[in-house]
Amino acid sequence: MKDISSKKDKQRLAWLERAEDDFPFYNGEPVTLSVGQWLFVMVAVALGFACLTVDVPVLTSEVGLFIRTLLFFVIPLGALRLVAGPHWTCLFRRLRFADIGWMISIAVLNLIVTILLGSFIMKFFGAESNAAIHTLGGMGTTEQGQFFVRTVPQLFGEEVLTVLPFLAVLHIAHARFALSRTAAVLVAWLLSSVIFGLVHLPSYNWNLLQCLVVIGSARVILTVAYIKTKNIWVSTGAHIINDWTIFGIVILGANLA
To answer: Are 158 and 177 in contact (CB under 8 A)?
Structure first.
């Protein structure tokens, strides 16, 4: 069942992926992680997310909240380091000039799709606002600047929260269920986007439709950056540009009101 033909191994999403470039950890490059190792990493992802979202009495200060944000990605990356050894760094690649263009173009596309889908959901089903973003307009300039800076490690953590499950599902779908590489990538792309949408439920007052349709679709687009470049820095950059633009619009709207 593990024997996947070389023809399948060479499949690419030709309209999106770069030729002769591949994802790590699912097909022997640089190493293959077992299902058990991936489960260990997924537990670490969940633990990191819990550190970010569950109130910890001793970590309620500004410094404590910053520590929790760091643990959000340090714990899962530490787990990946334990199972993959020095190869864990293959998530990170040197940025190319073209990667900057991908960050910007994907962020712009995502903003357009998010606005259209968000407007549709709001009109026909009702939508919830993100409380943290909603209060941004009422902050002072210094607080707003601090808010922008604080979001950087969290948004990077959200990329870790997406990319590691993406790679885990890719391995399981391809190696264990013998799906073609193309099918495995599509399944991983969809499931990791659903997970991303679901973890945002508390932020949007448990509005399942909004989180799956709007947030999930936004994640589908943002993940294009990783699928295209295999570089978590690029998807993080696109995510930051996207969210910072939204923050800027909220602040501008509050100032004009």
So the answer is: no
- Average pLDDT along the chain: 91
Write the single-letter amino acid at 156. F
Residue 6 has pLDDT above 60, yes or no: no
Q: What is the dihedral of CA 234, 239, 245, 251, to 10 degrees?
A: -140
Among 133, 129, 105, 117, smallest CA distance to 247 is for 133
Give residue 37's Cα distance to chain centre. Answer: 21
Residue 109 exposed, middle or buried by CB count within 10 Å (0-12, 13-18, 19+): middle
In this structure, the chain runs to a length of: 257
pLDDT at residue 58, as a whole number:
62
Q: How far apart are CA 75 and CA 219, in angstroms?
A: 22
Amino acid 257: pLDDT: 66
> What is the model's pTM?
0.92
